[in-house]
Design goal:
Radius of gyration: 25 Å
Order of helices and strands: HEEEEEEEEEEEEEEEEEH
Helix content: 25-40%
Shape: elongated
Structural class: alpha+beta
Largest sheet: 4 strands, antiparallel
Strand order of the largest sheet: 5-6-14-13
Number of helices: 2
Number of domains: 2
Number of strands: 17
Length: 238
């Protein structure tokens, strides 16, 4: 295959991956606690037929998550919690633990606090949080103290990954970690609020148009290169 076409196809494959990421961001515009993704292109050299020639190739295999805080919206919901500042809520996931900023919680049949997808919310000690069935007035203080009718229930303390531990996305709004989480100081927890997605629709649409145009240009380049090669072959054949 011609080197120009090979290189361009590699670039187009990366642009296709980026379009998929952008489309997923747009699809999660209204998902509470969602964190937008981006694509990082990495460059590597592909050895040619001899030592003096090589191709510079690019791949879009690394996804970068933007953990910037999204807007906080007041809902008045008793179990809608939001973190103003750094940190995550701790939830149970596949026998382990995961982090999330999506605090639109509810209760399961056992009265335990759970995420929208049914994962149990965990307290500072890693235990599930159960709300008494007869509780009438559930309150969450800004420092994470959860009480019902004036009686202490549990503590919801914002946590984060340990130093050097990179959260890995496992769901729309959840991230797994390899090491035990550590408490995060300075954050304020708000009851009756939810954190919206940090995706900015205008920026994502503008980027989608830009990437789509680049993809079309690549397709046109391949078409031109193919026609050029055909003309050369016709000329040589004559």
């Amino acid at each position: 295959m011609d080197n120009a076409i090979y290189t361009n196809l590699n670039r187009m494959d990366g642009l296709k991956s980026e379009l998929q990421v952008i489309a997923n961001n747009i699809a999660n515009l209204s998902t509470p606690g969602y964190k937008r993704e981006g694509v990082i292109f990495s460059e590597y050299l592909f050895a040619g037929e001899d030592r003096d020639h090589s191709l510079s190739m690019a791949e879009a295999e690394i996804r970068r998550t933007d953990f910037t805080q999204g807007p906080l919206t007041q809902t008045g919901g008793e179990f809608d919690f939001a973190i103003d500042g750094e940190g995550f809520f701790l939830v149970e996931y596949n026998g382990g633990q995961a982090l999330t900023r999506a605090g639109n919680f509810g209760q399961n049949a056992a009265g335990e606090l759970v995420s929208e997808n049914g994962h149990r919310v965990l307290d500072a000690g890693g235990a599930a949080i159960a709300i008494p069935p007869d509780a009438r007035n559930v309150k969450l203080s800004t420092d994470g103290i959860l009480s019902a009718d004036g009686l202490f229930i549990s503590s919801v303390v914002p946590v984060g990954p340990a130093e050097g531990d990179t959260p890995e996305r496992v769901g729309g709004t959840m991230f797994t970690i390899q090491q035990p989480p550590v408490p995060v100081e300075g954050a304020v927890i708000l009851q009756g609020f939810k954190e919206d997605s940090n995706v900015e629709a205008v920026l994502e649409m503008a980027r989608m148009i830009e990437v789509h145009r680049a993809y079309e240009q690549g397709a046109n380049l391949n078409k031109s290169e193919d026609e050029r090669i055909r003309n050369v072959l016709r000329t040589l054949g004559a």
